[in-house]
Design goal:
single chain; Helicase, Ruva Protein, domain 3; oxidoreductase; 510 residues; 13 helices; 10-stranded mixed sheet; D-Amino Acid Oxidase, Chain A, domain 2; FAD/NAD(P)-binding domain; DAO_C_sf
């Protein structure tokens, strides 16, 4: 495979939220875009988050007012962009007087309510736990309540990549960038020659601008693959989460204060579970192999048990996940205090071939980061269109009225669909659900039943339209059904996928 003749405006390395957002923004401005990811979309940091779109209340303590203001405003923007995968959520902070005085929390919440434009999200208020049936320990008598949002993080990435592709971008997974070098296109311009490798073999592309959105590998990519000096260092901060049986009723999350001044979230998850996290721990190992430690497990269990009546032990843990946040090194001694803001570094030689590297960032501000990235490269593309992403919706949000209305439409059209299944479909696909339901009038017409509401037509759609290759791609990052599937059921799905890929390969060869 040789694509030496293809010259893209922008090549983006890294298929996490930042790379996906930049690719979508660039494609929508009329640029030709290539996006590659060495594994699956969102298979590292971007699927190991706390699943929140939030302003970052605790960042106010570190005086990161610009970041908080931007993140608060983005909550409202993203709610409109993807109402099927992003939902308002109320957060309760139990008051622990020995940790933070009430006046300090009230001041922080005042800023939280007013720093960013708030249109649909409710403001903060006091909560008297003695007046309600509280899941918290009896000695915790009052607290504070405020608004943020929950998100399906991996689907947010996939939807941005889908949007990029629909706007003309070339997007490929399981394609590793082996390196890149500046070469002379003509007497006036240098470009990037980029070496790529996938299972079928190695090939090349060319690009006028190279964007390094490799996340945890951003500095390594510059130093080892480009043989250049990285303008900034990177701090890898490990964050781990526990998934346990539902700790309490209702759809509100809790933000738990700890003696070390950190906070831990307890968040309703997938209707059956509670998600507890995250930790902040310096990580020095291979980002491909990050795993929760015994120390982190104990820390998160202690945080929960210090606050809730229901006491947890290790045997209650259903699943765990860990990731590393690639934060720009600001030389802070405390991992929790390392800035969550992003830094974009642009470098070029005399005759062009710019390199734009992304250091840091967070899920909530990915769209603003992408806009900033386009601002950095605008001088190289004078015909580039204007900013557009703030008022556009992501795939599945087209003609989306409400989750309840769409779920009712699905159940009216397809007999045998439970309320739970309809809700899962709506929260994953929005109005794109009709792409795989097609003409089916009954669940029995959706093909092979793999269990837990997963049918062949959904699987085929995920392979055809969302780059799914393996059972892990589908169960962990596309549907979140991995918590329901047994090892045997997962194996059956993988076998189906292998046969499907073989048939497609034979058809392509013919």
């Amino acid at each position: 495979m040789n694509d030496n003749h293809i010259l893209y405006d922008i090549a983006v390395i890294g298929g996490g939220i930042n790379g996906a957002g930049i690719a979508a923004d660039a494609a929508g401005r009329g640029l030709s875009v290539f996006l590659c990811e060495k594994d699956d979309w969102a298979s590292h940091t971007s699927s190991a988050s706390s699943k929140l779109i939030h302003g970052g209340l605790r960042y106010l303590e570190h005086k990161e007012f610009r970041l908080v203001r931007e993140a608060l405003a983005e909550r409202e923007v993203l709610l409109k962009k993807a109402p099927h995968i992003i939902h308002p959520m109320r957060f309760i902070m139990p008051h622990q007087p020995h940790l933070r005085p009430a006046w300090l929390i009230r001041t922080g919440l005042f800023f939280y309510d007013h720093l960013g434009k708030r249109e649909t999200l409710a403001g903060s208020n006091l909560v008297d736990f003695q007046a309600v049936n509280s899941p918290l320990k009896a000695e915790i008598t009052r607290g504070f309540e405020y608004s943020d949002c929950a998100v399906d993080d991996a689907r947010l990435v996939v939807l941005n990549v889908m949007q990029a592709r629909e706007l003309g971008a070339k997007a490929v997974t399981r394609t590793r960038c082996l390196g890149a070098k500046r070469v002379q296109l003509n007497t006036l311009q240098n470009i990037w020659q980029i070496e790529l490798e996938k299972e079928q073999g190695a090939y090349q592309i060319q690009a006028k601008v190279l964007v390094n959105a490799a996340g945890p590998w951003v500095a390594e990519f510059i130093q080892q693959d480009l043989h250049l000096n990285a303008p900034y260092g990177i701090r890898l901060i490990q964050g781990s989460h526990l998934i346990v049986p539902k700790l309490y009723d209702g759809q509100k999350a809790y933000i738990l204060q700890n003696d070390d001044q950190r906070i831990v979230f307890a968040i309703p998850y997938l209707n059956k579970y509670t998600l507890i996290g995250t930790t902040d721990k310096e990580y020095l190992g291979d980002p491909n192999r990050v795993e929760i430690t015994d120390e982190e497990i104990a820390y998160l269990l202690d945080a929960s048990n210090d606050h809730f009546k229901t006491q947890l032990s290790r045997k209650d843990i259903i699943s765990t996940f860990s990731g590393v946040r690639p934060l720009c090194d600001d030389e802070s001694d405390n991992p929790s205090a390392v800035t969550r803001d992003y830094t974009l570094a642009l470098s070029q030689e005399n005759d062009g071939a710019p390199l734009l590297s992304v250091f840091g960032g967070k899920l909530t501000t990915y769209r603003k980061l992408a806009e900033s990235a386009m601002g950095h490269v605008q001088a190289f593309f004078p015909e580039m269109k204007k900013m557009w992403t703030a008022s556009s919706v992501l795939p599945g949000a087209e003609n989306f009225s409400s989750a309840e209305d769409l779920a009712a439409q699905i159940q009216d059209k397809v007999s045998g669909v439970s309320a739970e299944l309809a809700a899962r479909w709506v929260n994953a696909y929005g109005t794109r659900i009709w792409k795989f339901i097609q003409q089916a009038a009954s669940v029995h017409e959706l093909g092979q039943d793999f269990g837990h509401g997963l049918y062949a037509q959904e699987v085929d759609y995920l392979v055809e339209c969302e780059w799914a290759v393996s059972a892990e791609d589908i169960l962990k990052r596309r549907t979140k059904l991995y918590l329901e599937f047994s090892a045997d059921e997962s194996l059956q799905l993988d076998q189906y996928l292998q046969a499907l890929h073989q048939r497609r390969a034979q058809e392509d060869a013919a």
